[in-house]
Amino acid sequence: MLAEPARGVALHSGVIPARTPGGRPASWAATGRSGGCSLPPYDSLNLGLHVGDDPVSVGENLDRLCREIGLAGLAWPRGVHGTLVVEATAPGDLGEADAVITCESGLGIAVVGADCLLVGLAGDDDRTVAVVHCGWRGLVGDVIGATVDALAARGVRPRMAVLGPAICGACYPVPLERAQQVHDSCPAEVADAAVIRCADGQPGIDVRLGVHARLAGLGVKADQVVSLNRCTAEDPALFSYRRDGRTGRHGLVMVSQGSIANL
Ligand SMILES: [Zn+2]
Question: Which CATH number among 3.90.1210.10, 3.90.76.10, 3.60.140.10, 3.30.70.2740 corresponds to the domain 4-167+218-255?
Answer without folding.
Answer: 3.60.140.10
